[in-house]
Design goal:
CATH superfamily of the largest domain: ANL, C-terminal domain
Distance between the termini: 46 Å
Shape: elongated
CATH architecture of the largest domain: 2-Layer Sandwich
Keywords: Membrane, Transmembrane, Transmembrane helix
Radius of gyration: 27 Å
Number of helices: 6
Transmembrane segments: 12-31, 59-80
Protein name: Alkaline shock response membrane anchor protein AmaP
Organism: Cellulomonas wangleii
CATH class of the largest domain: Alpha Beta
CATH topology of the largest domain: GMP Synthetase, Chain A, domain 3
């Protein structure tokens, strides 16, 4: 799933959540009679006859058909967008030419970066992956950090680690994005019983 699809998911979830929240609050206020105190045109009962009037109009069938097709196309796009993954499987190295192709396993590179990151002072957990975003290879890492870690120093260590990862395969075009997730509490030492 790409970052754009994630953004659409979040926006749609927020919009649907707000609509459902507003409808739920309005239903509770209507049922309790408080909505009528604030809005004088509040009906005292729901009339299904008004819905029949709308359904019987000549334009309703066309609008319902077009809406259904548009919703179907949107659902199909959404499903297909979730099938694609931005993950990079292999990277072509600079030695690739007409005589052969040199490739680097992206998962192995990301795994090595995560393993090396776990050895940095203050890092208690790490994971990394190589994604393709807007035509560029991006090393995406998440490091779980002890709250007492020296973050400026850790930032320098992470930058050096990323530079080493670039140098391993001559991947000058590779970008990096690292998220430092600082834990709320310091990691406890081993318990003695």
């Amino acid at each position: 799933m790409t970052r754009g699809v994630r953004a659409v998911n979040r926006a749609a979830a927020l919009l649907v959540g707000l609509v459902l929240l507003a409808a739920g609050v309005a239903a509770v206020l209507w049922w309790s009679g408080l909505l009528g105190d604030w809005w004088s045109r509040t009906p005292s009962a729901l009339d299904a006859g008004r819905a029949d009037e709308v359904v019987d109009r000549s334009w309703f069938g066309g609008v319902a058909t077009v809406s259904g097709v548009l919703l179907g196309l949107l659902a199909l796009w959404w499903l297909l967008a979730h099938l694609r993954t931005p993950r990079v499987r292999t990277l072509a190295l600079s030695g690739s030419d007409g005589s052969g192709r040199l490739t680097l396993d992206a998962a192995a590179l990301a795994g090595h970066v995560a393993q090396e990151a776990r050895r940095l002072p203050g890092v208690v957990g790490a994971r990394a992956q190589l994604d393709r975003e807007r035509g560029r290879d991006v090393l995406v890492s998440t490091l779980q950090v002890d709250p007492q870690a020296d973050l400026p120093e850790l930032g320098k260590d992470v930058a050096a680690l990323v530079m080493r990862a670039r140098d391993v395969g001559g991947l000058r075009g590779m970008s990096a994005r690292t998220h430092l997730a600082v834990r709320r509490r310091a990691r406890e030492g081993p318990r003695v019983r």
